[in-house]
Amino acid sequence: MSIDRLGARAGSRPPRGARVSGSPDATLDGRPSPGGRWRFWGAAYTLLILLTGTNLPTPLYRGYEARFGFSPLVVTLIFAAYVAVLIPCLLLAGPLSDAVGHRRVLLPAVAVAVLGSLVFALADGTAWLFAARVLQGLAIGAASGTLTAALTELEPSGNRRKAALVSTVASVGGLGLGPVLAGLLAQYAPAPYVLPYAIEIALLIPAAAVVLALPATRSGKRWRPRRPGIPHAMRAVFATSGTAGFLAFAVIGLFLTLVPTYVATLSGSGNLLLGGAAVALMLACSALAQLIGYGRPARALELAGLPLLAAGLVLLALAGGVASLPLLLAATVIAGIGQGLVFLGGLTAVNQAAPAERRADVLSSFYVIMYLGVGLPVIGVGLLAAAVGLLAAVQYFACVVAALCLAVLLALAIALVRAPARR
Q: Quick check: pTM over 0.70?
């Protein structure tokens, strides 16, 4: 086993005097350089802001429904359009980034993100919303796996566990910041359907500067489109972590699309900030759980997170049945903690197992699974809501996903018992 992998597994730095694999911003004696730190945190900022922009519409969908006259099902289809373009873009951008360098992929991604926010700001019909989400899907598809790989390579001391933590916290932080920012501005500031996107465009300008400052690294290999492939040695890790992550992100998809309306139905309040705050609370708990879980074994994080995620979903279903906001609050906190532990554990396991020459490719494939979890289940919830109502649809979804979480938990436990050496 290499020094780099041993250091990553222990969550520690490589021995002094060793060259840090995959970390161009470390000095020869292993000490991080100031420039390396700046690029690392700049890449984290870029990921945070890109994901903030994609989630600005979350508390605004109810207003768009009233302005443009569409149903909750259309909301899920708008969200699905984002995922539909995001996934093939992830599959193309990952190996492309490995071949031509991260900077050449990320700079166009930031430009497309600016364009997506501009289309949202100018939207005067449902078609504009679909177009804006497609542009955002292209941007995030190109950037997610690429920035995660860049963070791993730019972490000055070569600590993959720290890189995974920063990546997941930035991702979840962006998911949570977007709804709060848009809800706050839409409720209390002028131009509620323009101002949030204008601020996002302004925040993307320093992100573009960060991307321009990234090292112009490339592998020298020729890029060609190919089907997603996972190295044989890590397929078992990818399968279990990917399944757990799919379920964790299915919960995020539910919160991002339908829970704001669910909250409004239970509370009887039309305050846009309230729905966005519920989403943000869930994601804030996720980020906090990741910070607390940092340094713990990847499988231990997943084993702790799956039952919490299941418990939060059961409480979410019960909250709708008894129309209890305090119970909804408890469900949001518990589900958020479980989601954060599952996501961090899964990404850490995959990040540690991925070979350096295919890291962006593997991580992009991992994010494909995550975004499938975000996009596919909520379409089913939207269809079900049209037949049985929103509250009942969310309850059915929560119970099914909770049962699946427990099934994956059992599978993980059995696998660990059969192969204790792999813990």
A: yes
